[in-house]
Amino acid sequence: MERFWESKSLDEMNQAEWESICDGCAKCCLHKFIDDDSVTEAESTAHIQAGEVIHFTNIACDLLNTKTCSCTQYARRTEFVPDCVKLTRENLKEIFFMPPSCSYRRLHEGRGLPSWHPLLNRGKKTAMHKAGMSVRGKTVPESDADLDNFEDYIAIWPLEDLE
Question: Which residue, among 13, 66, 58, 83, has the nearest Cα to 158 in the 3D structure?
């Protein structure tokens, strides 16, 4: 198999190559929040202020199949979840909301793909799941979560990056 990600930048990849960079961990499908005492009601943001920290939770989007770690409505996800961010070449530079293990983020930062990435494992997610780098078995569906108490669901594991 050609290791195109080693010879092409993310900007140079065709659509199929771009899509294959996603490791399928589903950490991007977790609810995240920025602790900001000046905000009284939850709202989306496209940026982070200096000194702010993103908190990942173990609350997963209801569209996520947590066994396969894939969206059940991938092609139409932004219709069903308007706040769902579709990662593109254009918005890649604002990936503050992606975990350090995100393969797009890793390539953007010059760190290469991790050894557990499906492209390095015959297209299979098994190594990723075994390494504990996916959300499999670690989440609560948003429909079952008490969204008024987000802080009760803060999770550290989404920030782990083994390599």
Answer: 58
